[in-house]
Hints:
Elements: H1 3-15, E1 38-43, H2 46-63, E2 67-72, H3 74-87, E3 94-98, H4 101-107, H5 115-120, H6 131-136, E4 147-152, E5 154-159, H7 160-165, H8 176-186, H9 207-216, H10 233-249, H11 259-267, E6 273-277, H12 281-284, E7 295-299, E8 312-318, H13 325-335, H14 338-347, H15 365-370, H16 375-383, H17 409-424, H18 430-444
Parallel strand pairs: 1-2, 1-3
Antiparallel strand pairs: 3-8, 4-8, 5-6, 5-7
Helix pairs in contact: 1-3, 9-10, 17-18
Amino acid sequence: MERSRLIQAAVALTAAAGLVLAGCGDTDPSGGEERADLRVLATDVPQIQTLKKLTKKHFTAETGISVDYTLLPENEAREKMNREFATQAGTYDVASVSAYEVPIYADNGWLAPLDSYVKADEDFDQDDVFPNLASSLTGEDGKLYAEPFYGEGSFLMYRKDLFRKGGLTMPPDPTWEQVADLASRVDGSEGASGICLRGLPGWGQNLAPINTVVNTFGGAWYDMDWNARLTSPEFKKAVGFYVDLLRTHGQPGAERMGVLEILDRFVEGKCAMMYDATSLASSIEADGSSVKGKVGYVPAPHDRTAKAGWLWTWAWGVQQASGNKDSAWEFISWASSKEFQELVGQEVGWTSAPAGNRMSLYEKPEYQQAAGAWYRQEFTAATDSADPRNPGVGPRPYQGIGFLGIPEFAVLGTAVSQQIAAAIAGQQSVDAALDKSQDLAQAAAAKYRGG
Length: 451
């Protein structure tokens, strides 16, 4: 693929959502101010805000390397990052890349491999990083292209008090059939919906949980020849199950609700169950939550596969065009280290420590005490989630669990998610939604079939 086409593909990663790049950040590295030793582009989330606050006092003081952060909301950061890496502008040395971008960027030669740095840095302890997470950040060439800052899986959260009231028992490793049955039995208890699930369109919204259902029901987006499979019996059964569950026992207006909306409903006591990200547990158990201390956590429901659930991470990658790769690794080695987690735990609080990336965090009594309600299942989700390279039944030509690791997926996934949201809203049947989606998927993969 020629360079102009690569750039177009990268821009398309977020264009479908109508994103507009905001010209804001901490500083503009090209704006004439004194240049920092290292320039970092990252998503503006609490974990990275904490990192920024601790950088000068600890990392810069210890290494002499100053860091200039540009922090943006996720969609704006992703848009800026896509353009930066596609053009290899070299404006930023390090960026917070996700499990979605890494295989795409690596395949295009936009990221610097980190294997030699890892090998030389004995203190970093790569073996402590969750293997599934490391696998998701490894290219097709077997090289490691990013290190996780924090990670998350998915699990099922349920109201123990409502289950006791209804004489119900949650299985320790539930199937989706069991979840649907429980949802029907607990629906309406104290005014709560049987289950809350994402219905809002978006490849990172309703398709994230839906894809895990598709995987465990035996479906796949494409066969090994890149022929679309969205109208296969397995794919139809999975999407039909999800849509029917939401329409019969889910929250009202589900097609307008994403992760934040259903989290709010759960915290307010309006959901008996919720299947979503492990990272939500700290909000569910926070002071002020109406369900604090009333929630149980079990693995992601499954069907034909022995396990399910997604795997996600924001990780640190080095731009291939960076002239400061050695300094970039020093920063990554610090920011993704066990020592940094300890630092956050001591200075900010253990529930603020970036979790889901290192096994050793879950051995610390301090973290076990602070995250006592959920840390065991969070650990299980990280160690025993689906394999990003083989998440379902049978082979597939793409990598990913809750997404497809191809540039076209941001546009394709957004379009398909809109069709499914329309089915959730009752505006069309699941069959009609998937017939339209099949055509979109077939067209999106034409180049992979050589067409």
